[in-house]
Amino acid sequence: MTLKNALNYFKNLVSKASKKSEIKVYQEFIRIITELEKRDLSETEIHSLETTLDTLGLNSANTNHKKHFNKALKRFKKYLRDAFSLTTKGYYTNIGIALGSSFGILFGIVFLSSFERSLGITLGILIGMVTGLIIGRNLDAEAEASGKTV
Q1: What is the DSSP code string of 3-43?
Q2: What are the backbone angles phi and psi of residue 30, rounded to the nearest 5°?
């Protein structure tokens, strides 16, 4: 499936879809494909992208469209990250918040246990999330400045 065909396919799906959650997935595919078309990619890179789009099984008739296309979108994003070192917007921010809250719980239990237990855990999560957010935003800004986001 060529990039143009995939773009037209998802635009057609957006016009037919009625659920907001399905439309979001289709629009994310559209956004990524249009960003890829704007890039100066070589013929081999374009062929590799088209081959990957073929392997995702986008044309298969599945009864659960949202679940099928959500999995396909995750696999496509992973392929872009692995093959081209491209990330989507907010990728590092999401990872930073998740890791920050995880380590924040540990930080709250170990170091803030002098407060009431729930208050220490809450403060730890808050500190961890804010730290993860700041680090993630900085990494996202660096990736966007170097042209590594789609």
Answers
A1: HHHHHHHHHHHHHH---HHHHHHHHHHHHHHHHHHHS---H
A2: -60, -45
pLDDT at 65: 79
Name, in order, each residue with C-beta under 8 angstroms of 21's C-beta and a sequence gap of 6 or more. 66
Four-CA torsion 38, 43, 48, 53, nearest 10 degrees: 50
87: three-class secondary structure by DSSP: strand
The radius of gyration of the chain's CA atoms, rounded to the nearest angstrom, is: 20
Neighbours of 42 (CB within 10 A): 8
**What tens digit of pLDDT does each residue of 8-57 get?**
999 999 999 889 999 999 999 999 999 999 998 899 999 999 999 999 88
Stated pTM of the model: 0.85
